[in-house]
Structure prediction request, 65 residues.
Amino acid sequence: MRREREPIPKTRSEFILVKCPDCSEERIIFSNSAKDIGCQGCGRKLAESRGGKSVIYATLVKKLG
Ligand SMILES: [Zn+2]
Prediction:
């Protein structure tokens, strides 16, 4: 007897490493975050939540998947 597979929600979310344009502090953020993300160094807004998808204001360093 097989169990039915749970549907996996397909989201294009990923973790990304970004760098603050002001103070160069690097930070890993979630591209689909439900809240705004601020820089830990200077408080600059790095990502803003907008309808389930974040708008990134920081410099993208690399994607972590
Ligand atoms: Zn900063």
User: Anything to note?
Assistant: The chain is about 0% helix and 40% strand. Residues 20, 22-23, 25, 39, 41-42, 44 surround zinc ion (CB under 6 Å). The chain has a mean pLDDT of 88. The CA atoms of residues 11 and 17 lie 18 Å apart.
